[in-house]
Task: structure prediction
Amino acid sequence: MVRSSGAGSYDFEIGRSWLYRTALGEAHCGDSLSAMKSIPDGSLNAIITSPPFALLRKKAYGNQTEAEYVEWFLDFAREFKRLLRDDGSLVIEIGGAWLPGKPMRSIYQFDLLVRLVRDLGFGLAEDFYWHNPAKLPGPAQWVNIERTRVKDSVSNIWWLAKTSAPKADNRQVLKTYSASQRRLLESGKYNKGQRPSGHNIGDKFATDNGGAIPPNLIEVANTRAFDPYQDYCRRHGLTVHPARFPREIPDFFIRFLTEPGDLILDPFAGSNLTGAVAETLGRRWLSLDVSQEYLQGSVGRFLEAPGLETRPGLIPDSVLGGDRT
Ligand SMILES: C[S@@+](CC[C@H](N)C(=O)[O-])C[C@H]1O[C@@H](n2cnc3c(N)ncnc32)[C@H](O)[C@@H]1O
Result:
């Protein structure tokens, strides 16, 4: 089916499982492995996601155990590879885990990376890290009581691609210059020549490029003093998703790796932050989650989105309440 609702039209249909849609995207409830079977090869510009982790303590939404995890994920990843365009990107935010009962770390996220590259033929375009300074210390036994481990506050983000030239433009994600760099740009005074590191500082070092090139470390505390999504869930008695990533993660990769009008999939959408950021940035989006409850809350992120339609019966009017203007 070709939807005719404007920029959000897809030239494929993945079934009647959508809970809500806008002019730019659709949120579907169901197992993403089956839903992806209806999407034609090479349809997507990017897949940006945070899958369930292989956590020691199972979360409410059912994580795989460490041993099962990699095999489980590879089935999805084969579909991801089929669905991505040749210049498309796969971005996976994946947290670490402790082994059960001992102060040793699992290497499952590294194992997964190796298998994605060696067995499925993805290339690692770049490894990124998310530092969450607000992360609480744990497991208590090793970190707070015995004091033999420290707080784990960094998670991995694997940026994978099908070819060595995925679409990417770091000018879209420049950081504000530091005060010292700004002073240098204003004065034009700096030491030219070779640094001990081998870098050659030339004449263009003092050129204002509109911002600094960002590093592969995203530093953001996963706390929000006021979050309209949480507020919406609470007002309507809906579950707030327990494992959301911060807005800065999808925002960075959507700007960096896609252009307006591109199509982005989040196959483990949860509170559908990827879809919401894509919507704000004028990208088309497709979001899948097995939990209807999480998706019901996620509609709270789209109340102002042009063309919002909700599926009668699946999102009751009482859930939309008086929120829509
Ligand atoms: C870590 S959460 C994603 C959170 C999301 N990034 C956010 O910020 O809200 C992982 C999600 O994967 C969903 N999930 C697990 N298995 C799935 C499957 N087979 N198909 C679709 N969704 C699945 C869970 O319901 C959960 O919401």
